[in-house]
Amino acid sequence: MILLILSGRRIPSVFALILILALTFISSFSYASKKSFGPEYSSLKFGTLSYNDRFKIYRSAKLGKDGLEDLKSYLKRKKMPFPKTIIYMNKGGYKFPFYFALEEHFKSNDYGYDFFHSFGPGRTYVDGYNPYQAKSDIDKEGQLGRKARKHFSYEDDGVDGGVENFKKVLEMVLDEENQPVLFHCWGGRHRTGMIAMAIRYIQGGNWVGKKKYESWGMRLNAAEYEYYKYNKALYRKDNIKFIREFVKEPFFQNLKNQYSSLLVDERNF
What we know:
- This protein is an alpha/beta fold.
- The protein has one domain: Protein-Tyrosine Phosphatase, Chain A (Alpha-Beta Complex), CATH 3.90.190.
- The chain is about 40% helix and about 15% strand.
- The protein has helices at about 15-35, 65-75, 100-105, 110, 145-150, 165-175, 190-205, 220-230, 235-245, 250-260, and strands spanning about 5, 10, 45-50, 55-60, 85-90, 115, 180-185, 215, 220.
- The strands form three sheets. A five-stranded mixed β-sheet has the order 3-4-7-5-6, sandwiched between helices.
- Strand 3 and strand 4 (about 55-60) form a beta hairpin.
- The longest helix has 23 residues, at about 15-35.
């Protein structure tokens, strides 16, 4: 009979096997838990929030023509589908020296995706601090360059990026007709981070359990810690405070009841 020596004692093979399997499981679980935080593909700040037959939800930083090609190559390597819908939530990228939003608009036909953005139909701009306290009127900031003004126009609609826009973007991300969907802002940190946190709160479970992490003087649950892992240098406490308030809304509770069991990741790593 095979024996395992542990702390000077002999353990029969059946118990040794159980012990080895248990230690292996714990080690794998710990590794998987660590892998769940932070970008899967760091150059694009790309991550996956849900992946199953019905809902494939991605996040990233700005793309532009080079980022789109990089994303296509990465997803092909991983045997994951390219997004059918891309949603951009910031106000830059429409004029010199940054044209990535324009590039994503012009490349949408080549790649076969629907592109929603801050100056297009549906206007998806979201305040980057706290949408409850949005103050910017992006139509008065001269964000559109000469080329962009040939395709988009300003609107006299007052303050942009409030909580109603945040809700609209979240509903677009969760719309089954838009799958696979990718949402992003400029750096993939603040606006993207808030939408991602909202999705993690919908998923619930360990994402919103005990606040066992700490950063910048705040105790964080796993959903909030993931936000930090995408955003160590430009961490905004206002983003986390917004989400903690937002998830109390009946609107959010309805989304949670509808989608919590659907937003799972069924990939085999």
